[in-house]
Predict the 3D structure of the following.
Amino acid sequence: MEAPVVPVFCTGVSAQVQRQRAKAQGLGQHAQALRYLGQDFGRLQEECRRSGALFRDPAFPPAPASLGFRELGPGTAKTHGVQWKRPTELCRNPQFIVDGATRTDICQGALGDCWLLAAIASLTLNESLLHRVVPHGQSFQHGYAGIFHFQIWQFGEWLDVVVDDYLPTKDGKLLFVHSAEGSEFWSALLEKAYAKVNGCYEALSGGSTSEGFEDFTGGVTEWYDLRKPPPDLYQIILKALERGSLLGCSIDITSAFDMEAVTFKKLVKGHAYSVTGAKQINYRGQSLGLIRMRNPWGEVEWTGPWSDSSAEWNAVEPALRQQLVVKMEDGEFWMSFRDFLREFTRLEICNLTPDALQSRKFRKWNTQLYDGTWRRGSTAGGCRNYPATFWINPQFKIQLEEVDDDGDEFGGREPGCSFLLALMQKDRRRERRYGKDMETIGFAVYEVPPEHVGKSGVHLKRDFFLANASRARSEQFINLREVSTRFRLPPGEYIVVPSTFEPNKEGDFVLRVFSEKKAGTEEMDDKIQATLPDEKVLSESQIDENFKQLFKQLAGAKVLSESQIDENFKQLFKQLAGAGPPIFGGEMQSIFRKFDLDKSGSMSAYEMRMALEAAGYKLNKKLHELIITRYAEPDLAIDFDNFVCCLVRLETMFRFFQAMDVDQDGVVTFDLLQVPVGALWGVLATPIRDMGLPSRFAKETTPFFTSRPAVLGGILTVFVPLPAKGAL
């Protein structure tokens, strides 16, 4: 099926709606991968063939900026003398893949992306997985046009990524990943595609093998601390390899001096290895577990027991020895499982999604994915250490009904439901060049209180979290791209609260749920509703003369700019606030004072959320994000005049909608001619500016009056702008 044209890193409300609709139709799944940056491989390849010109990628050109921004930035020592060359300039007969992709095709260059190369090496062990990433039919001989493409998973979507075949070289040799043989280029081009998705090559420096595993499979990774391994870990490894899972491991470092330090027995600290095999053998009358490893450098191998030339192999039956041992410096070696546990400190296993498992013999996970955001003041509440704000984080419900089968790896324990939670933060590598890096993230799991069981549309509030402890949580808050933990809980309903460690840390995230049995999941968010006061209709004579004079004095000219309207609104409300209860009836002031906890004259953003609910408004998280963006100061404080402005606009919007919602089904349908443009503009003028639309929509406005006495205790008149003729 031809890949659809959908821009990937687009922003704005319309783009978000477009992406949500596209995902609901299956776009972004592997069979319908999105064209990254809208580039169509088939069309571009055909254009190059017709013109006779080799492809040069304008989106990721062979230029200094594509290398990096700091150590590999333009003009730095490491990039001095770098030349971009096509494989046809580097060797006489370049090949894309020779005799199938193998682990020796991946040798590390001058880039600290061993974590990525370990993942690519593991990918070569499973041909069906490999060709989900490296599509068939690419060649330097048949139909060559200087263009190649790869499919990479990013945060819940598969992307079809186009690259040209210009590769960075120094002294006529590839600067980064290369094959041991020298004339095979699929791995170098895949590295380039991955660099393009992340902004540049330097963005790939340093990372976890699990990141590469997941971006080549769409799977989810489990971590094991080898200093505290489960008793059946060797069996877990055997099963994982049989299932086609990808495995990686590393040795933790204790200081920067340890990074890539080589141990006495030639293991490299702080370096990512791939696990490429495991074998139970008979050794001197006893069963012994062996494990096969690979160093992405393609050299520097373990020299301890069961290494290539060790004496232990002499006691193994010759046919088996010949099958297992390859005596060459290829970076691959065997070691005993006991030594593996002693020497290495971390193991990562990437579990594959159902669509990646072709064989029916594999047990498949049930999976669900949610996109989410953390925004200052509205949805970024921090961890449980911050009880005043923790509750504002996004919340997701998991309904566990079916217990695990007897006899599985959890057999022998009380009945329970197994599931894996994985929280991943988006686009952090891509933003490194702007000084951003991984946030510290984690999550907590709570049992749903009885009064909310079976209900949707309920965002649990602060009091619940103050009174209830979590049932489970991520093992730690850590500054990795993803945090994942396997749980086993009794049947029931649970709430997952993903968060950054500290409040007001912004970011986008993906939450994935992998369950052994089917599990219901949904995002918890308040349903939008409002309890509006009865509206009283006042005649002109009932409006206080002093108020009329005040309004005329502030309004002044008949034509005002948008900024003048905003300023006059604030001045008006400040004057009214000073007038006290006779004008406001005490209603708004009492709510404001209740939630201005420190009596500073302003509320915090999360106090604003509680105040709005006390005023009769339940809003979802998206509306809270917009309100905080519009009405909060840079320090997230909201003063009284902004509080009143917000309530005025909310009531106007709800009343306008209710008037249009004739059949009261919560849906309004109308065409442009049916909309009372002036009233609607009064509601939307400022939010439209916040959405980034052109300022010409609000340059010239004409004021008019709309009676809103109920809002301010019976007297306030609301000033709303009407767009100038032709502005729309």
The chain has four domains: 13-202, 220-351, 365-403+415-525, 540-723. The longest strand covers residues 273-283. Residues 540-723 form a domain with the Recoverin; domain 1 fold (CATH 1.10.238.10).
